[in-house]
Amino acid sequence: MNIVISNSSDEPIYEQIKRQIKNSILSGELKEGELMPSIRNLAKELMISVITTKRAYEDLEKEGYIVTRPGKGSYVAAQNKEFMREMRLKIVEEKLSEAVEAGKAIDLKLEEMEEMLRLLYE
Questions:
Q1: What residue ranges do the domains of the chain occupy?
Q2: Tell me, what DSSP letter sits at residue 108?
Q3: What range(s) does the HTH gntR-type domain occupy (predicted)?
Q4: Which CATH class is domain 13-76?
């Protein structure tokens, strides 16, 4: 798992960790049941406080992305397939919204946008 922390970002470090782990789970990079790095090891690797890493893991557990087994560690939680599909659809919608905004900013016609999407999709 490769997590990149930006100290110049306005986003808190624990949120950066949480977001990147969520994205790894949603993309399938992290699989159901996969052992997560320990809180201490991740903090050491990222050169951050254990408290920061613990907060990210606690939030991920509350949101159902990971489960923690005392004495054994944290694992990627089993995900509801329909929930996973909805989350991935939300990501696609966000990216498409960004593309639409960028297209409108340069007066790109809908037909041109559709053609670009068609070419990229193939």
A1: 13-76, 81-121
A2: -
A3: 11-79
A4: mainly alpha
